[in-house]
Amino acid sequence: MQVKIRDERTGKVVVHERLAEAFPRWQPQERWLFISPHDDDVLIGGGILLQRALEEGVDVHVLVTTDGAQGYCDLSLRDSIVEVRREETALAYRAIGVHQVHLLDFPDGSLHLFKGRRRAQDGDPGMIEGYTGLQNALTFFYRKLLPSRVFLMSLNDYHPDHKVVHEEAIISLFHAHNPIWAELGPPTGGFPRVYELAAYGDFVALPSIRVEGTKELKERKLRALDLFVSQKEIIASLVSILRERPAVEYVREYGFKLYDPAVYEAFFS
């Protein structure tokens, strides 16, 4: 199983056998946080990567931001779909060996109403330390987990929830690094490397990493997706494509960094 890294500047491709050789600045204890707008997203885009990371001893966490309330295909499930999807999520990730799944339960399809951070009122979702909002929750989990790498769904994905989570996740990296909102824990003291996976739409630019899996890893991923029984009609078109393709996934490094004027000096020399 190979991992291929493409240098975006030169186009040169380097082949490795292990994730630890391919992902830069590998730490003795890697902790990866996959932020999934909906319960099935990172499994669609990174189910093989998740399994390979576990095989190499990575401490893997999945953070699901929405409650799945809008994902019903049958009226009989409308009032129970949140609990149904909660159970499906536990089963699906457990099937590939992921046991650390965190649920924020923000309202599915309405994430734009929970951008930022504000004082929580009775009944607000995602309440942490008396506040609600995606930036509050994401800052808290960055500081709590201190991930070495963060994986998001591509900003180019079609679903609006995916775009909102991507934007909030990026600004929350800045918040988590700084000493604001002390009740959410001490600052992280640094930034993780940030990557994107794709599920609905293509990447916004060429991916930089190609991860191969075995037939067994691919089949385990597909069996896990089949456990989202309530979502079969919704994700059928996505899964049908995966069934026909090789056991390969693609990742794009986002390249998160703070503005530095020196970057542009050479253009004006």
UniProtKB/TrEMBL annotation:
Gene3D superfamilies: LmbE-like. Pfam families: PIG-L. GO terms for molecular function: hydrolase activity, acting on carbon-nitrogen (but not peptide) bonds, in linear amides. InterPro entries: GlcNAc_PI_deacetylase-related (IPR003737), LmbE-like_dom_sf (IPR024078). It comes from the Bacteria. This is Putative deacetylase. It comes from Winmispira thermophila (strain ATCC 49972 / DSM 6192 / RI 19.B1).
